[in-house]
Amino acid sequence: MNILNRLVTLVSQACGIFASALTAVAVIIVCQMVFIRYVLNENTIWQTDFVTYSLIAATFIGAPYVLLTKGHVNVDVLPIYVGERARYWLAICAITVSLVFCMLMTVLTYQFWYDAYEGGWVSDTMWRARLWIPYGAMPVGLGILTLQYVADLLNLLTGREPPFGLEVKERSVDVSLPESGTEVNIPGVGI
Question: Contact at 8 Å (CB) between 71 and 115?
C-alpha cells in the first residue's frame, strides 16, 4: 500500500511539473507570436494551435497533481457541519462517484484518441497537426487522475487521511455566562 501511494504521488507530482512546463512554454509561444505578428508583420501558422493544445494538455495532465494537493474547487459547507461518521460516508460517496466518472472518461477518451490515431486525423488549420498527439493528453491525464482517486480512497479507508482533509475537532465545551459578580479569567484576553 505504501509503495502504491508513493508511486501515485510521484507520478502526480511529475504531472504537475509537466503541466507547469507546458503552461510556461505556451506563454513563451504567445509572446513569440505577438512579436512575429505585430513587430515583424508576418503570419503565424502553428502558434495558435500549439498554445491551445498545450493548455488543454496542461489541464488534463495537471489534474492529478491538483487532486493530490486538494486544489480542486469544492463546496465544503456540508462536510463541515455534519458529524464525523456522516462526513466519512459522504467522502466515500464523493470519491467513489468521482472515481467511476474518471474511469468512464478514461475509457471514452482512449477510444477517441485511438480513432484519431488510426484515422490519421489532422487539424483543419494550415499547420495540419496530427491530432492523436494532443488528444493523448486526455486518456493519460484522466488515467492518472483515476489512480490518484484510488490512492485517495485507500488513504481514506485506512485512516491515513481524514475525510475532505478536515481534521476531527475537539468537542466544544458549554461556556455559559457566569453569574453576575463572578470573575472571568479567559487566557489571552486581558479582562
Answer: no
Give 162-184 pLDDT, tens digit per residue: 998 887 764 444 445 555 555 55
Task: Return the H-helix or E-strand segment holding 34.
Answer: helix 2-34
Strand pairing partners for 122?
Answer: 130
Residue 5 CB-density burial (10 A; 0-12 exposed, 13-18 middle, 19+ buried): middle
Q: Give the integer Cα–Cα distance in Å for 164 and 80.
A: 9
Q: Is the four-CA dihedral 111, 115, 117, 118 of positive or negative sign?
A: positive
Q: Is 140 exposed, middle or buried (0-12, 13-18, 19+ CB in 10 A)?
A: buried
CB 106 within 8 A of CB 148: no
Distance of alpha carbon 65 from alpha carbon 19, whole angstroms:
9
The pTM score is 0.82
Q: Are 161 and 155 in contact (CB under 8 A)?
A: yes
From CA 136, how far away is CA 123, in angstroms rounded? 14
Residue whose C-alpha is closest to residue 102's, from 163, 148, 167, 43: 148
Name the 3-class secondary structure at 37: helix
Contacts of 13 (CB under 8 A, 6+ apart): 65, 68
Condensed to tens digits (0 to 9), the pLDDT of residues 92-110 reads 999 999 999 999 999 999 9
